[in-house]
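Recap quiz, item 2
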Amino acid sequence: MAFEGLADRLQSTIQKIRGRGKVTEQDVKEMTREVRLALLEADVNFKVVKQLINKIKERAIGQEVMESLTPGQQVIKVVQEELTQLMGGEQSKIATAERPPTVIMMVGLQGAGKTTTTGKLANHLRKKHNRNPLLVAADVYRPAAIDQLETLGKQLSLPVFSMGTEANPVDIANEAIKKAKEEHHDYVIIDTAGRLHVDEKLMDELTQIKTDVKPAEIFLVVDAMTGQDAVNVAESFDSQLDISGVVLTKLDGDTRGGAALSIRAVTGKPIKFVGMGERTDQLEAFHPERMASRILGMGDVLSLIEKAQENVDEKQARDLEEKMRSMSFTFDDFLEQMSQVKKMGPLDDLLDMLPGAGKMKGMKNVQLDEKQLVYVEAIIQSMTRKERQEPSLINASRKKRIAKGSGRSVSEVNRLLKQFEDMKKMMKQMTNMQKGKKKRGMKFPFM
Amino acid sequence: MSFFQKLKNKFKNPENNTTDEQTPEKYKEGLKKTRTSFSDKMNNLMARYRKVDEDFFEELEEVLIGSDVGVTTVMDLVDELRMEAKRQNIKDSSQLKDVISEKLVEIYQGDEDEQPQKLQINENGLTIYLFVGVNGVGKTTSIGKMAYKLKNEGKKVVMAAGDTFRAGAIEQLQVWGERTGVEVIRHNAGSDPAAVIYDGIKAAQARGADVLLCDTAGRLQNKVNLMNELNKVHRVIEREVPGAPHEVLLVLDATTGQNALAQAKTFQETAKVSGIVLSKLDGTAKGGIVLAIRNEMQIPVKFVGLGEQMEDLQEFDPNAFVYGIFADLMQEEEQAE
């Protein structure tokens, strides 16, 4: 990532202060300047930044920071609190209409990810809320937009209502509601065409649909990478349609996502969901405090833990723990463990979530090589069942065979064997340590 | 002669104007929103700060950052302006207006020649252009527009539907193929993109086509595996046609903020980007991203998307672009004179 986080930015100022033991107003000013730059680099709108900085300055010049022993950390804490507060609470509830079907309208600029999000939302409604949604393809402008929604519908085995590209979107919406009533769908999600917020004709079309179908929710779909313009887009969609919430997409990229803060600040509307990947199940609830850390480039430990919990089978983890304790940990278990870590996503992503890792990665030679994992896997897979259970069996000629089978060198095989032994030793020490204390194992041995 | 006068003369003087007559007008129309908001902001700034002081510079920083110009670029620029103001002893903000515009134009145009950057062409055989970018920036649309443009220039064009991942992407390119009357080489959804591109090359060669346009799936630049896949596509093209791809065009969404720089950097490492297509420029109040990219990276902007019509993909002409942005300011200047 090209930008340094706030913590890194504040380093130099903090170092200066360290020797003196007293923080002056000038120091605070310097620090708030760094905060300002960090926020601007995260794409937070400059007007929003200005308001925030004034608030932060007030608090910082007061006793809170200047009399603190760790002024740098105190500033970060103040900033984070202000950001979290501004972003509001967690709200991923979807409204329900008094009489079904509940209608949801998806609106936004071109390429924000409306159609993909429509599919994700339908999946979410069905899986988490046991609903029966009807998808409506009302994007008659972009080539193959209807095909896209229909393909998503097929993937999810959900019905898609469409009337071809010749029909009027307003008519499509009305017909869809009729059909939903007949077929007893409790939710209707209307995927509208992407449009510029300055395009009056197309914005009128949305107003018309809104008047006709009376949606319970209008979600503005916004690309998390949007820059300063996010404010204008959100403001103008909100003033014309009175949106009920925001879905922030493509947050699995490496953008800081300051747009989230800007949108929230100008519209006051909650960010309800975030898109975290291209698969239809990658829609998540929005967490303000995590977003605050992200905007400040401070890592995201909470998401990492959650990811681990999602992807690591509780039972497997317990079995593994038992094995470690009884020292019967084998190469097979090692393979199993690796595949679990891999399930959590690219290593780089995981590292990004750790605070301070940004700095680590800055050093070029520490770059994580996904390939190494593949090599290790290949070497283990070239061992026989028996060798995996009893690594001590592996002698020189076996090593040669393994090296040949995996296409790696003998020295690499040696290295892996050595690492494996070290690991076992370490485990032994740890379990010995734990025996003395409480009987609480490590849930995630790879962390 | 004022600075704007000079700029304007460039357009009136046909010798200096390489693009067709219409281009400046197109830019003016397409950039309407960018232009009004930028000049409004500048005028507003001048009106509120008669005196050139620290507050003025801070506000100027905000106007520029508000246009998505990169933070580093803005800080450099404003520092330069501070020096300039000191050196020329400028106290009145209106006097600084000319200097500001001049500096901006300088960055827009870069150090090199002011001519629009033409696309590379393979004189003896098939020319291949590869389109890359993150999700939803408008790759497929840009390809469709490019096909239309090249076909109008009398070239035989073939398109390869290399986005096998996103639902409906192949169909989307197919529709563009029908609209423009250009053949689309396609496989089923979910197949290997490198294989599609390979077939595209073979088909284009067999049909004696001049240009092959290759679509790829959108990918976020931090997804290592997807970037590796792109690298493979690049290798396949390189292997099949020596010297190809003749252009790797990174499509960037003009509404994107600071992340656009990260995108440009990563894609350049993986796919050796040779030029940028800036899409959706008609919709945004900004355009400052062009400045940031010009200033912080050596990749030229080659095309801009200025609307939803087939003919709305225009060669990026720094002069016309600047003209589009400053047109209102120029008129005022004239009236004042």
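Residues 356-367, 437-447 of chain A have pLDDT under 50 and may be disordered.
Chain A touches chain B through 60 residues (CB under 8 Å).
End of item.
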